[in-house]
Write a structure and sequence with these properties.
Number of strands: 12
Radius of gyration: 22 Å
Shape: globular
Order of helices and strands: HHHEEEHHEHEEEHHHEHEHHEHEE
Length: 348
Amino acid sequence: MNTIKDTKSAYAQAGVNIDVKMGAVASIKEMVASTKTQSVIGGIGAFGGLHKVPAGKDEILVASTDGVGTKLKIAAMMNKHDTVGQDIVNHCVNDILVQGAKPLFFMDYVGTAKVDPNVFKSVVSGLCKACRENKMALLGGETAEMPGLYPLGEYDLVGTIVGHVKKSELITGKSIRAGDVIIGFPSGGLQTNGFSLARRVVFDLCGYSWQDKLPGTNQTFGEALLAVHKSFLKPVAKLLERKVRITGMAHITGGGFPDNIPRVLPKVVNAVIDRSSWDVPKIFTFIERQGKVDHDEMYRVFNMGIGYVVILPKNQLEKATNILKAQHQPYSVIGVIRKGKGIVTYEH
C-alpha cells in the first residue's frame, strides 16, 4: 500500500489547500464589511448570515439566483476579474427589480479547482463595489475547491439575491393593456448572455484576440465583451418613487426579447418592438455579419443594446421621460403593446 509522506497535508497534495483558501477568505473581510447595512446583524464567518426582516405585514420577500456564464472565459483571457463580480450582482438586482423589489442582501458562490487568492480578492472587490452601489449587503457566501471538476485556472461564479417589495406595489404585468408604450434602457454590452456564440465568432471563426480592436470602434474585443452588466435600480426606483404607473418590466437576459418580455405579458396582448428605434452597438452587428447569424436569432440570443424594458400607459410617458432626463438616464421608446396572444413581434 502506498502512503503519502510529505510536509504538505494529504488534502493539499490532493489539490485542496485549506490554509490558502481560509487566508483568501480572511483577506476580503474588510471589503465585505464595507457593504454592511443597518439591517445586517453580525459579520461574515458564521454558518449563516443574519439580516432583519422588513417591517410591515404588507412586505414580501423576492429572491433570485443566477450566474455569469462563459463571460468568465473572457475575464480569464484578460486576467481581469473585478468586473464579473459587478456583473452577477447587477444581473440579480435587475431580475428582482422587474417585480418592483429593492435589494436587501446578496450571497455568492465561487467554485474552482484551486483558489487563487489574487483572483478571488479581485472577484470579491467587484461584488462589494456593486453591492455598495445598489445599497445592499454582501451577507456571505461559499468558496469551494473541487480539483477534477473544474479545469485548473478556471472558476464559476453564482449569486443569490433577496429583496423586498410591498405586496400592494408588486409589479406582475397583469395590468398591461393594448396601447401601453415600451421604453428600453441601453445595455452597453452583452451583459451576461450569449458569450458562447460571441466567443465562437470572434475568436474561433475570425481568429481575433481580445487585444484586437473591434472594427469601427476604439474598443478592443476584450473591452467590448467584458463591459459591465448595468444595474437599472436607480432610474426605475426614481420612476416608482415619483409614482409613475408602471404596468410591467423585463430584464433582457438569456432568451433576448422573445423569451423575456412574454414572461410579463398577459396572453391577450403582444409587444411590438420597433427595431429601428435605437442604434445597435457594433459588437452585435459584428457577430451577426461575421457569424452569419439569422437576424431574428440575434434578438433571442443577445439583448442587442437594450438591457431593460419598462412598460407603462401612454399617458404616463411624458412624466416618465422627464424623470429619466433629469436623472441623465438614456432611453428609447422602442415599441407598443397591441392586442395579440402574449408574444413579441417586430417592426423593421
